[in-house]
Records
---
Amino acid sequence: MNRRSSKDIEFIILRDGTGFVQCVVDKSEAGEDIYQKSRKLSQESAVEFKGKVVKDERQIGGVEVHVTDLNLIHKSENYPITNKPHGIDFLLDHRHLWLRHRRPWAIMQIRNTIIYAIHNFFQKEGFVQADAPIFTPNAVEGTTTLFETDFYDRKAYLTQSGQLYGEAMAMAFSKIYTFGPTFRAEKSKTRRHLSEFWMIEPEMAFYDNEMNMDLIERFIKSVVREVLEKNQFELSLLERDTTILENTIKKPFPRITYDDAVKIIRGEKDVNGKTTIGLLEELKINTEKRIETLKNEIAEREKLLADNKMKESKRNFIQNKVDSMKHELKELQEKLKNIPLWIDSAKNFEYGEDFGGADETALTSLFDVPIMVYNWPKKVKAFYMKEVPGRPDLVKGVDVLAPEGYGEIVGGSEREDNLDILIERIKEHNLPMEVFQWYLDLRRFGSVPHSGFGLGLERFVAWITNTKHIRETIPFPRYYGRLEP
RNA sequence: UCCCCAGUAGCUCAGUUGGUUAGAGCACCGGACUGUUAAUCCGGGUGUCGCAGGUUCAAGUCCUGCCUGGGGAGCCA
């Protein structure tokens, strides 16, 4: 709970886990005793109210409670998280308490809807949920760093992907999906990485990459539709502009080959008359303009501050305003410095490379729905992806890039189903052949075309809720430098 | 592992070319106000300036090293 007061009246925001309601303790209604008790309530005290529910359009949920009785269950003292701004690190140190607050509450409600909608979609489509093991004897793709553990005196690693096991299960049950934790020991310090995150990995027998992309698109639309139906209130708490989410369920996702994507990134090809370079140059001009106005506003206020007859409280107020404007100015100047680098990186993008974060942002900013980029250079993708017929340099992989700078939320492919080619690919990647023997069995005994993809739950939640840092999308995040609480 | 930035009160931050006794807002306590939404107004005090060393008459401020955090690259969902 949280409290505000005026003379003879107290406003208390009460939370019960399902939502929030304002409770009003009016001295004339509740009586002197109850009113005095309510004045002693502190932030996050546990309390029980009796009272009348009254319609009030001004309030969240449209109602408030006029309190007639009050029972203090537990008085909270010196609650650390105040109603004022805190830094992300302080909040994460108090994550066990921070979860009680509105923003985390709204994000977790949406996360819950997403999890439910994912199961709902696959169950209705006839998929079997079948989870992959978490302890694994080897690195699946050989590139990422894994967490090493002791498994009865043997080295074991925490899984970085359940995909190979998913393929085995798809050969057994036709269409399956895994839904479990995944671990990466990379010392990544960016807003889109976690050491421990949840991944959904469907795998379908007799699916080529076209069918795979059809499924991905229907899947994303279905989950987003469910969030829009169930979580309007939470989205409004988060001040999420839902235009792009609504587009996502209505419009088809553009499907772009890697070859075309490269041309678009370089600014050689336009999308509805706009190019990446043009957009970035526009952004540069707008940022410059904003910096100019900020500078002028700061100068104006500093002139005001030079008048030392000014009342102290007023002076402090203006000083604070100036400080926060200087803060914004610093951020914008930082951004302005980076824009030419982004333009440079886009213009000189080298064919055959994977997209960097800035390239992805440049590309996706031209669209108002998620896009699918397919047919990737073989050398930047995993060994198990199937070659594109007639293009031995390309594989049938697909990445879904979310709009608004969220980057890759889905990665998938058609899998190589030919034993000999797969063995060649394992050799090319210098992977230990012996640990893949069971996987190669899948190509020895009734190998069929099959495809699948992986969706990172937290990145998906981050995009839907428009959360800047992925670590706010999981109750207790684990990443380089954070193991507590 | 590499590059950039930061570390000042419980929290968020200011602190100018090195110069007297280091500041503000919030939180907290008291008071004022019948309707607040981060309420507002008045009063009340709080510091190992991340750590270690150096330069200097003088260091929060400059230099070196280390630690911690943030952003990014790599890697990826």
Note: Residues 312-347 of chain A form the longest helix (36 residues).
---
Amino acid sequence: MIPQQLPATAAPVPGGRVCAHPDRAEIRLEAVLHALSDPMRLRVVRTLAARGVEAACSEVELPVSKSTCTHHFRVLRESGVISQTYRGTSKMNALRRADLEALFPGLLDSVLAAADRQDGRLGGVTGLVRA
Amino acid sequence: MIPQQLPATAAPVPGGRVCAHPDRAEIRLEAVLHALSDPMRLRVVRTLAARGVEAACSEVELPVSKSTCTHHFRVLRESGVISQTYRGTSKMNALRRADLEALFPGLLDSVLAAADRQDGRLGGVTGLVRA
DNA sequence: CTCGTAGTTCGACCGCCGACGTACCATCTG
DNA sequence: CAGATGGTACGTCGGCGGTCGAACTACGAG
């Protein structure tokens, strides 16, 4: 489902591969919290935050299969946490910091800080790969 | 499961009905986020926060059956978000503000603020009962 | 054109989760 | 004691969610 209907009238990318993002007004707090409550997805978000810039799916190493990986990135995108754009053969992911900050001020940062703290407490078991 | 083993040496309450809470060090961020990502539970937390003091289960009106209600309160307790104590025939619930603040500074407040904001945006559909 | 890399899609599996009703227990009030 | 009130325990049901493998598509490099 969600077959991303797009008329040929708008072709932002040469190849024309685009995926649907919720716009700012559609982002729901419960969905964001749910997205962040999964260890894998939280790890993705932390990695993206640590880099500061966008990263390809394959650059965020997750101990799961490719299809599961795709699944998690989609959940993050559909909940409004990240945005995804195709760049050549790979897909770049970026945190939607501005949107999240506008909707839920301080939320993302406190979650990230909380994750870091907990990581420290538990001795880094939570598993964020440090560059 | 989790049959709350407690020796008779400590009897804090006359009747002796107690329930197990995770202590501060055991509270996990993912569990908290998961607990808060459910609309019903978020509603409970917001109601407790709005009151400032503890409230009985029956005082937090939820559009679900009694047993479902019990379930949600248990999830909140086991994730470390609330504490529960028996008081006479009813069970009092309180936010574990101090513990959450110590572990994840600012997190609870930003979630609560985010919920309020979203409530405003969506015209109060989210359904927090205002006293 | 061919190949390799990067993601996607599909179907399946299985566990968990939210919801319910019923039966039950604990406490207070008469 | 009896009854009422407030929660719990248990079993169940339906659906969602995380995981996988296999087949497939899209793009870039030779």
Note: The interface with chain B takes residues 25, 28-31, 33-34, 36-39, 42, 103-107, 109-111, 113-115, 117-118, 121 of chain A (CB under 8 Å).
---
Amino acid sequence: MTVTIKDIARKAGVSRTTVSRVLNDSGYVKDETRQRVLKVIKELNYTPSAIARSLSTNKSNTIGVIVPEINNPFFGEIIKGVGQVADEHNLNIILCNTDDDREKELKALKILKEQRIRGIIITPTYAEDQFNSEYLSTLENLGIPVVLLDGHVKYSNFSGIFIDHVKGAYDATKALIKAGHKKIAIINGRKNYKITVDRFKGYKKALNENNIFVEDKYVFYGDFEYESAYKITKHILKMNDRPTAVFVTSNMMILGSIKAFYEENINIPRDMAIIGFDKIDALNIIGMNISFVNGPTIEMGKVGMKMLIDNLDNKKSKEEIKRITLFPKLVLKGSEKFINNKCE
Amino acid sequence: MTVTIKDIARKAGVSRTTVSRVLNDSGYVKDETRQRVLKVIKELNYTPSAIARSLSTNKSNTIGVIVPEINNPFFGEIIKGVGQVADEHNLNIILCNTDDDREKELKALKILKEQRIRGIIITPTYAEDQFNSEYLSTLENLGIPVVLLDGHVKYSNFSGIFIDHVKGAYDATKALIKAGHKKIAIINGRKNYKITVDRFKGYKKALNENNIFVEDKYVFYGDFEYESAYKITKHILKMNDRPTAVFVTSNMMILGSIKAFYEENINIPRDMAIIGFDKIDALNIIGMNISFVNGPTIEMGKVGMKMLIDNLDNKKSKEEIKRITLFPKLVLKGSEKFINNKCE
DNA sequence: GTGAAAGCGCTAACAA
DNA sequence: TTGTTAGCGCTTTCAC
């Protein structure tokens, strides 16, 4: 049915080995022979079988990418970055979308192992702190390089790219202070999560450096989803000594906050300043000018893939565990400004 | 290094054939033998090689998915749908993101062919009308089932899932009319594009049915990007006999329109009614309540993948070309209302 | 019920 | 510079 190396060999009057040589640019082949072979390849529209090659070399050129939510542009951008680098290295990607489902995660690992992938890139969900042990041990037993993207350092057995959430929160808080705010609330993610703790650290550091006390009444915890921030914001607006600024630590949560502001006719930043974490393209396009801390998603994908490639070749010491920290960038759009004085 | 079927066979004291039988539940195996084999498989943590199997059976369990823009949630949702169905059928996905780049498209096809994929799902970009012939012929020469998602019927050689854009535009326009509008502008996509033409048809049909004339001055063409709609909207707002409602035919473009409304202090829907095409989650979450025609993205992915699977087994007549039309759903949020009378 | 042997399409020593 | 041969890990007749 399909054209094989044998067909090429026969028609070109050479051995399969020779065809293989021109295919892989390996070994010596007389130029004349090479041309003849190439011509036949063209004529017969032959494409070598990556499957047969993988089996023969015992080495695939496929890597696995596991994401919890492919329809979230955050992960889409990561994949975009991963894909770009993979492309350059002629690696291809088997994508597994887990919908944050434990079983699917496990199944994905099994499928990827069957495919004898070279390495694996995982972007853990926010629920990362609940990585189950079966998943982890399966991952380790795979015996192939793993790179965690924006994961948790606690999984110290894996290489990974990390975002400096402390710095991100610090920058955001500092910008609010610089704009004149002293009463700054934080709507943070789920308590105990690493990123939540880190972001609080940054918030606290900025306040302390400016001799502002961290007031418990201004510290809130949501669950990363917009409803939680919506409720918290509603509550904030009813406070007696209400803050003049809010730092909201996820892109979904900031939507909830804005909704609440809308409903209560709070103008940003006239009545309330705000800075978010991770961008929401739509808001900026329509001109809402919400400032935010921008996690470098595409870059994270790229850097992560590069690291994986390094580890792929790194057959030496078992595989050294590498870590790279990326810094989020504060993007100021005006929503952090201090315009209102009446709450002072 | 890795455990193979041979290791299992040896340790279980049977032949490789028998191991293969229990692996695939094929042929007769004494239950006692089966148990013994299974036990060894567990012990050795054996996972069969999909690569070897594919080579042997001359049949992979991989399909290719090509998208132009993985970071756009529109495509992310499609992939999600595709993935769900693929999962159920133990098919896995090699993802190719082309960034709308001709060369990458071609390269993707080459890679997929090398991988001996069973079938392919393509979501053409808006630039679909410029599908180049090299791409198309390569696609046909692959000799495997292809399913186009939201593509162009003009590529009549392929099966596909289509969205009824006429109906979508018709419903939207009709809703505006029902809300009392008579002067309804349309900000459409690139002229000559199939979807643009279809949407205009729907718009026109709704107007005609209600004895409203299509006024050329209310018909605009952008390029699907938000800047174009922004400019057009600015223009609309300066018109003498300005419309009371606007139907904007892409999710990016509606952001541009809203930006323009914002800047000119136009309240929706008090001063201007609006309906978009394809959802923008963020806007609805923050409570802007923009009505829109919702393309069934996830469903499109699911239905498309199901169709591909059908075609996979369909070894009979070459492969019949199938078409399924999906209907977008109008989601009314209030922005289509008719509140302003002063323009009447 | 089970096994021997051939073969899928390719690569990689080793010879020539 | 080219070819022979064996083998990658699995499935699949066919025979026992």
Note: Chain A has three domains: 5-48, 62-164+296-326, 165-295.
